[in-house]
């Protein structure tokens, strides 16, 4: 099997699964309980929080645990909107955000908030000048993802941070779900970023656990009320085993980040070079200002889902861009925002690499690609 769908989900590390199992079996107390079993669980919980904070160069009090990226995005967008409603109702999001942000903003528009989208250029990168012109006195929130999940374009978070450096009334949220281990932290977690979303299963932790980074001093409306966990902002019994394994996965992925980026970039370069040789192949992911692991392309006249299943017959697994919207059969929203015609956007498929992949898999993929490409000649 060749697994090239790591942007959808990664295979958990064996050491991470062992951590999950050990904690789940041995540290099973509720962290809120007063007895020794609860104290043990609470210590693991806070040790994990401290480790993650150190890895992200922030304070432990700025780390809040969630069920994943979608919840973190929902909480950030909705929580800030209602917290700051008295100061304005204008929200800016990029035109290429994940559905977790897009749909949250759409829902807020039904609650009386005004949502505007920031355009992107033909490479899928936010136009900073356009963003400057969209900001108003009543703008309370800007949300721009760090790495686009559909084509891998890296967004200018540093530049945006500079633009709003003298606008303290604007909260800046970054969806960093695809960023950990793929681009340096300083590229997406600047001192001006107020909120950032992370999801464990994107970097070899189990599904169902994530993080919302919230800068100290930033107020946000509670997401869940009840027992008062997570500083009374997200009340629910914490997933201690999941959180401990997430902390371990983050440490492991960041320890080898530089080496991994070099390896993955080399594999992507070969794919780009070889795929570009074919006349009817459209490359949507470029090399500069793009994440090293994501390569999105299409074959003219061949719908993306057809290509996905053609590779699946050879035990090779790729994706039609976003995993969260692929079953809906819609063309990649990022490509549409870039000005790509719908008929071309419908051909898009995404390869997303990981450090677990190797050059022999790249060679095998390219061999099968050539076979599929030749078989589709009549259709093209």
UniProtKB/TrEMBL annotation:
A GO term, aspect molecular function = iron-sulfur cluster binding
Q: Which keywords are on file for this protein?
A: Aminotransferase, Iron, Iron-sulfur, Metal-binding, Pyridoxal phosphate, Transferase
Q: Where is the Aminotransferase class V domain?
A: 2-365
Q: Which cofactor does it need?
A: pyridoxal 5'-phosphate
Is Ubl conjugation given among the entry's keywords?
A: no
The record's listing under PANTHER family reads: CYSTEINE DESULFURASE ISCS 2-RELATED (PTHR11601:SF50), CYSTEINE DESULFURYLASE FAMILY MEMBER (PTHR11601)
UniProt family annotation = Belongs to the class-V pyridoxal-phosphate-dependent aminotransferase family. NifS/IscS subfamily.
Q: What is this protein called?
A: Aminotransferase, class V
This chain's source organism reads: Streptococcus urinalis 2285-97
């Amino acid at each position: 099997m060749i697994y090239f769908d790591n942007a959808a989900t990664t295979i958990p590390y064996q050491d991470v699964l062992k951590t999950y199992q050990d904690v789940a079996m041995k540290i099973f107390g509720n962290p809120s309980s007063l007895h020794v079993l609860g104290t043990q669980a609470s210590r693991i919980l806070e040790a994990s929080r401290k480790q993650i904070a150190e890895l992200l160069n922030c304070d432990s009090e700025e780390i809040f645990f969630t069920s994943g990226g979608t919840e973190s995005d929902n909480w950030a967008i909705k929580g800030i909107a209602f917290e700051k409603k008295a100061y304005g109702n204008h929200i800016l999001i990029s035109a290429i955000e994940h559905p977790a942000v897009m749909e949250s903003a759409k829902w807020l528009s039904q609650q009386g908030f005004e949502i505007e989208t920031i355009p992107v250029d033909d490479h899928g990168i936010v136009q900073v000048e356009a963003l400057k012109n969209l900001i108003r006195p009543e703008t309370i929130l800007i949300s721009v993802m760090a790495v686009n999940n559909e084509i891998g374009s890296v967004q200018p978070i540093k530049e945006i941070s500079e633009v709003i450096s003298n606008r303290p009334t604007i909260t800046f949220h970054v969806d960093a779900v695809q960023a950990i281990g793929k681009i340096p932290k300083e590229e997406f977690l600047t001192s001006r970023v107020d909120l950032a979303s992370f999801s464990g299963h994107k970097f070899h932790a189990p599904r169902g656990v994530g993080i919302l980074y919230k800068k100290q001093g930033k107020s946000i409306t509670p997401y869940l009320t009840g027992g008062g966990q997570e500083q009374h902002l997200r009340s629910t019994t914490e997933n201690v085993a999941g959180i401990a394994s997430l902390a371990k996965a983050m440490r492991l992925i960041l320890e080898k980040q530089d080496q991994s980026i070099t390896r993955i970039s080399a594999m992507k370069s070969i794919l780009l070079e070889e795929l570009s040789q074919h006349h009817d192949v459209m490359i949507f992911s470029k090399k500069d200002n793009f994440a090293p692991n994501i390569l999105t392309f299409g074959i003219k006249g061949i719908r993306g889902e057809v290509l996905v299943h053609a590779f699946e017959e050879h035990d090779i697994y790729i994706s039609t861009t976003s995993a969260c919207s692929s079953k809906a059969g819609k063309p990649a929203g990022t490509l549409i925002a870039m000005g790509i015609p719908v008929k071309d956007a419908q051909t898009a498929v995404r390869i997303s690499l990981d450090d677990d992949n190797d050059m022999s898999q790249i060679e095998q993929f390219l061999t099968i690609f050539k076979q599929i490409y030749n078989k589709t000649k009549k259709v093209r």
